[in-house]
Structure formats: C-alpha cells, structure tokens
Amino acid sequence: MDTILATEDLTKEFLGFTAVSGVSLNVRRGSIHGLIGPNGAGKTTCFNLLTKFLQPTRGSIRFDGRDITGMKPAEVARLGLVRSFQISAVFPHLTVLENVRVALQRARGRSFDFWRSDKVLGQYDARARALLEDVGLHTHAHLLAGELPYGRKRALEIATTLALDPVMMLLDEPTAGMTHEDVDRIVALVRRVAQGRTVLMVEHNLRVVEGLCDTITVLTRGRVLAEGDYAGVSRNPEVVAAYLGTDPAISGAQAHG
Ligand SMILES: Nc1ncnc2c1ncn2[C@@H]1O[C@H](COP(=O)(O)OP(=O)(O)O)[C@@H](O)[C@H]1O
Ligand SMILES: [Mg+2]
C-alpha cells in the first residue's frame, strides 16, 4: 500500500485523561479516509495532533516519507498537509473573490503587502477565479463573504484551503449544520477536490461517509475500534454497540444493510 500518512501509537493525555490512545492510522495516498466515532471519541484531538496544534504524549507521525512528529504547524502545512480553516479564515467584509486572492497571496508568503497594489492583486485573479469555479462559487465572486449562506461559506473555506495547493486535506465535519441541499453540494465538492490528493475527514453524517469514504477508521474512547470499508465497519457488532443510543443513523444503516 502507498501510505501517505502513518501514525504509530499516537497518544495524547490531558492531565491524566487519555483522549487519544495508541492510535496507529494508515492513510492510503489518493484515498478519501473517514474518521468516525461518537462524541468525545478523540477525532478532533487526532486532527490537532496531525496538524501539530497539539504535541503527542507519545507516538509518531509520518507524512509523505518524513517524520513530522516534532514539526511546527506551519512546517507541516508547507509540506502539504493542510486542515481546512487552519490558515485561511474567511473575511466577511471582503468579497468571495478577494478572499481567495488573499489566500493565494498568503500561500506565497506575502501576507503584509496585499493592500498595496491592485496590480499585484490582479495577478492572482485568474487563479482565484479558477479556484472559485472548482468549488462552484464563480457566480458568487462579487458577493461579500459574510453574505453567503452557510453551506457556500464552507465551500469558500475549502477554496481558500485549496489556494495552498495541499497534498492532503483534513476536513473536520465539513457538512455539520447543513441543509440537505448543501450536504449534497459539499459531497460533490469533496469528491472533486479529492482528485489528485488525499482527504482525511471527520464526518457525523453516515450517508456522507458511505458515499465518499474508501476506508473508515472508527474511534471510541480514543482507541481504534474498527477499520475497513463502510459495509464492513457498519456491520461490525462492536461498532454498532458503540454507536447505539448515540447515533440512530448507524443502527438504521445496520437494520437495512
Ligand atoms: N484541551 C483539552 N483538555 C482536556 N481535555 C480535552 C481537551 N481537548 C479534548 N479533550 C477531551 O478529550 C476527549 C476527546 O475530545 P475530541 O477529540 O474533541 O473528541 P471528538 O472530536 O471525537 O468529539 C473529550 O473527552 C474531550 O473532553
Ligand atoms: Mg470533534
């Protein structure tokens, strides 16, 4: 297997409480990998460890052939492991297009001169428009970002993340709080941005997980409970037991699956 991201015995303790415990995760290059589990399972902590926002208590992380365990968040991002919303926030008083232009400039390390010259900004226009097209926002280019509906705002966040040209994207609950229509749009978008890169996503909506993810790792209480494709993990009795009472979707999927 061509593994792009591998953790070994990844562990994080907070004052004696173990949030992530001995996690060995292997993500295949080019795949969409889902990380699921009940609330408090340690999913977000895992993401924070992978992007180096948290230092692990023990264990190691390798990304694209390098040991990144001791690196800083910015170094890891520069290697191409990027979490959506990590570096680029959405500025509500800038237009959609301006947001992406600023993200492109920051990606090139020129964050302090972006207000100086319209000419400089103009250079980024073509690339910014192409990115907006990729996320289906080209018709919204001149709206203020703050005026976008919620689902479109998440799409803009993904566009600003794509401005960094990530090798691997981490998405933490990209469809959280969305309407059906927005969920469908984000699913299509994730599928599109996953072409030519790797995606690791935390997602609660199991229909989304089923539709998108090649491989799924189930966490409970900080540990890996099961791993495999959707059909396999959703039939695993331990997974069903871990979810029962907390997420009717997976028990429902089990009942008719
Ligand atoms: N900074 C922290 N300090 C103490 N406990 C934390 C901290 N961050 C997370 N936790 C705890 O670790 C556990 C896992 O949290 P989290 O990773 O956010 O879970 P998930 O994203 O799967 O819902 C929870 O019990 C949470 O309360
Ligand atoms: Mg979380």
Core attributes:
257 residues, alpha/beta, 2 domains, 6-stranded mixed β-sheet, 5-stranded antiparallel β-sheet, 11 helices, 38% helix, binds magnesium ion, ATP hydrolysis activity
Q: What is the gist of this entry?
A:
The chain has helices at about 45-50, 75-80, 95-105, 120-125, 125-135, 150-160, 180-195, 205-210, 230-235, 235-245, 250-255, and strands spanning about 5-15, 15-25, 25-30, 30-35, 60-65, 65, 80-85, 170, 200, 215-220, 225-230.
Structural summary, described in words:
The protein has 257 residues and is an alpha/beta fold. It has two domains: 1-87 and 166-237, Rossmann fold (3-Layer(aba) Sandwich); 88-163, no CATH class. 38% of the residues lie in helices and 23% in strands. The protein contains eleven helices and eleven strands. It has helices spanning 43-50, 73-78, 96-107, 118-123, 125-134, 150-162, 180-193, 206-212, 230-235, 237-243, 248-256; strands at residues 3-14, 17-23, 26-28, 32-36, 58-63, 66-67, 81-83, 168-172, 198-202, 215-220, 223-228. A six-stranded mixed β-sheet has the order 7-8-9-4-10-11, with helices on both faces. Mean pLDDT is 88; it is low at 251-257. The structure holds adenosine-5'-diphosphate and magnesium ion.
Q: What do the pLDDT scores average to?
A: 88
Q: Helicity, in percent?
A: 25-40%
User: Helical region count?
Assistant: 11
Bound molecules: adenosine-5'-diphosphate, magnesium ion
Can you count the beta strands? 11
Keywords: ATP-binding, Nucleotide-binding, Transport
InterPro entries: AAA+_ATPase, ABC_AA/LPS_Transport, ABC_transporter-like_ATP-bd, BCA_ABC_TP_C, P-loop_NTPase
GO molecular function, one term: ATP hydrolysis activity
Pfam family, one: ABC_tran
